[in-house]
Amino acid sequence: MAFSPWVELNREALSFKPRMGVARFLCKETGECFLVAAPNVEARANRVRLQVETGTMRNKRFEELWRRCGEEGSEVSVAEELEYVDGVEHYADELDILLQAFLERDGGAQRL
User: Fold this and answer.
1) Which of 14, 34, 39, 63 has CB atoms 3.0–4.6 Å from 57's, for a disulfide?
2) CA distances from 42 to 45, 77, 78, 83 (A)
3) What is the DSSP string of 23-65?
4) With contact defined as beta carbons under 8 Å apart, do 41 and 19 qualify?
């Protein structure tokens, strides 16, 4: 029995697991580093861009640098990815611990 494309798409959507971990935003001009932990790092990076564009970014230093240097003057990357574990549904505590470790390791990094 053949499945419809919609059933297959739905199955893929249900099994999708976004990359979670710590996203790093590095200003190439100043070397300043900004970190944020997220269950979906790509979505969080997009949210950060939107917050800068709309002027709703809490970290005004980051907003100032991003507006001055732009995306081409910044490096956006995943500092570390957190692996999924069977049976675990919520990773907020683990993400917070991972972010704290990165902030302590890189004393000059700021939290977004």
Assistant:
1) 63
2) 5, 9, 9, 15
3) EEEEETTT--EEEEEESSHHHHHHHHHHHHHHT--S-HHHHHH
4) yes
The two tokens of residue 11 are: 């199955």
Two structure tokens written together for 3: 């499945």
* Cβ atoms < 10 Å from Cβ of 98: 20
Q: Which two tokens stand for residue 100?
A: 């704290």
Q: What is the pLDDT along the chain (112 residues), one digit of tens a residue?
A: 456 777 776 676 667 788 999 999 999 999 999 999 999 999 999 999 999 999 999 999 999 999 999 889 999 999 999 998 887 888 999 999 999 999 999 888 999 9
CA distance 37 to 68: 24
